[in-house]
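Re: beginner question about structure tokens

> Can someone show what the tokenized structure looks like for a real chain? I only ever see the sequence side.

Sure, here's an example I had lying around. Input first:
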Amino acid sequence: MNENKAELKALQRQLETDGNQGHKRPPVHLWKPDFCGDLDMQIKRDGRWIHEGGEIKRPAMVTLFSTILWREGDNYFLVTPVEKVGIQVEDVPFFFTGLEVRQGELGQELVFTSSTDDVVSASAEHPIRVETDPQTGEPSPYLMVRYGMEGRLNRNVFYQLVELAEERAGVFGVESCGEWFAL
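And the corresponding structure tokens:
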């Protein structure tokens, strides 16, 4: 087993023994380990995680690693209490594949589920934004997740949002948790 695979396995073992069960996220914002170098890992635009050129096929492992993501400026890291390793992110680290419309305290609530089991309600703290490619006109919708990191909405999820959209003052958008988001 080469050095990078051994490091990846060691990181996985550490996470599994650090009490990270279920959907509880570890307090990465409190951890300040030294930088240990870059790992040959990439998160693709479509949400796939690649390690040493091969896709990580175990969803539980991808979900586990997603709980220790950290962003500093334009750089992304996997962080544990004792080490911080750099990874590459093609666009944004999360990819939203599901949408549920609920009724909450503030009215309609749009609840998104990511491919790594993050559940995020669009709100003032978790806004939706849409970037439009100036050359193709194609929209790229994003949702704030945590620690300055965003997730991109799957095309089907975006189409569901468009179906929910209404016009206000000449702008099409959606409401969630009392906030208005232009699409």
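Each token stands for a local structural state, so reading them left to right follows the chain. The two ends are 48 Å apart (CA to CA).
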